[in-house]
Amino acid sequence: MDIIYSSKFAREYKKLPKEIKSIAEKNEIIFRKNPLDPRLKTHKLHGRLVEFLSFSVGYKYRIIFEFDENKRTAYFHSVGDHDIYQ
Q1: What is the span of the domain harbouring residue 14?
Q2: What is the H or E stretch that residue 3 is in?
């Protein structure tokens, strides 16, 4: 699976603690093999983010993303704690 990182995602990722970045990198490997792997806790979002999905990075952090129409490319839009949903 290809992943395209938005500039917003890149900025937010740089600000993450090192230990969270390490977890994110491990989870990205899992995501590339199977974005719906139960270890990621991938789920659809609701409300104003209804067209997006999210998966867990540790207990507190999430990555918001969407797929292209063929589900061959994922676009990572945002990363952070639960505040990214607001």
Answers
A1: 2-85
A2: strand 2-5
* CATH number of the domain bearing residue 17: 3.30.2310.20
The DSSP secondary structure of 22-79, one letter per residue, reads HHHHHHHHHHHH-TT-GGGT-EE--GGGTT-EEEEETTTEEEEEEE-TTSSEEEEEEE
> How much is the pTM?
0.92
Mean pLDDT of the chain: 94
Tally of domains in the chain = 1
| Integer Cα distance of 17 and 20 in angstroms | 5
Report d(CA 70, CA 58) in Å as an integer: 28
